[in-house]
Amino acid sequence: MKNEERYIRNKMGDANPFRVPDGYFDSFPSRIMEQLSEREAVEIPMRRSFVSRFRGIMYAAACILLAVFGTVVYINESGLRSEENADDVVASGSTGSGSYTYEEEFADYVMMDNTDIYAYLSGE
Amino acid sequence: MNNYDEHKVIALLSEPKTQRKAFEMVVRQYSEQLYWLVRRIVLTHEDSNDVMQNVFIKAWSRLDTFRNDSKLSTWLYRIAVNESLDFMRHQKSMAAVTADADESSVSNMLMADRYFDGDKAAAMLQQAISKLPEVQRMVFNMKYFDDMKYSEMSKVLNTSEGALKASYHIAVKKISEYFRSND
Question: Does residue A33 lie within any of the structural domains?
Answer without folding.
Answer: no
